[in-house]
UniProtKB/TrEMBL annotation:
InterPro entries recorded: NUDIX_hydrolase-like_dom_sf, NUDIX_hydrolase_dom
Organism in which the protein naturally occurs: Candidatus Liptonbacteria bacterium RIFCSPLOWO2_01_FULL_56_20
The protein's required cofactors: Mg(2+)
Gene3D superfamilies found in the cross-reference section: Nucleoside Triphosphate Pyrophosphohydrolase
Pfam name, any one: NUDIX
Protein name (record): Nudix hydrolase domain-containing protein
Keywords: Hydrolase
Nudix hydrolase domain: residues covered: 37-166
GO molecular function terms noted in the UniProt entry: hydrolase activity
């Protein structure tokens, strides 16, 4: 097992930083590691009328329309549960009234340091929160049955974090 000797931030921008670390290997030798460090993320599986609420949204990084769940980053000083409520209000206009933590996933890959908090909610009140972001007007909200969601899951239609969260949810 590796032991971190030291680490320092070598790059920072608004959405991530890059950390350079020196580690000690099991044989006593040393090596360098680089990690992308991101703020915690949240996603909310919103279940209404026995259907899961998804978004269809254009994502500039992939240049494609993708299936998503209400999700986003945790702001400085914000609790993950409050970030989940905020994201649901911003993205689907519904405020979860019974939000509960399903699971926290650590480090989505060997080079990314981040926690992703997956929540589930089944009761809502309409309470949209306008972020002022013009692109959010173009999000399409879709309610899919569990069977439809499982089919898309089996077809590989979701990003890794959504896929992992949905697979965990459906095992419950």
């Amino acid at each position: 097992m590796e032991k971190t000797i030291s680490s320092k931030t070598v790059y920072q921008c608004p959405i991530f930083s890059v950390e350079e670390a020196e580690v000690e290997l099991p044989d006593g030798s040393r090596a360098k590691r680089w990690h992308v460090v991101r703020k915690d993320a949240v996603l909310v599986i919103c279940i209404k009328n026995q259907k899961i609420i998804f978004l269809r949204e254009f994502r500039s990084a992939s240049q494609s329309v993708e299936w998503r769940l209400p999700s986003g980053g945790v702001k400085d000083g914000e609790e993950p549960i409050n970030a989940g409520i905020r994201e649901a209000r911003e993205e689907i206009g519904l405020e979860p009234l019974d939000i509960r933590l399903l699971k926290t996933f650590n480090n989505p890959s060997s080079t990314i340091k981040q926690k992703a908090h997956c929540f589930v909610a089944t009761q809502f009140k309409e309470n949209p929160l306008d972020t002022g972001e013009p692109e959010e007007k173009f999000n399409e909200i879709k309610e899919l049955s569990f069977e439809e969601a499982k089919k898309l899951l089996d077809e590989g239609q979701f990003s890794a974090s959504i896929e992992r969260s949905l697979r965990f949810f459906f095992k419950q």
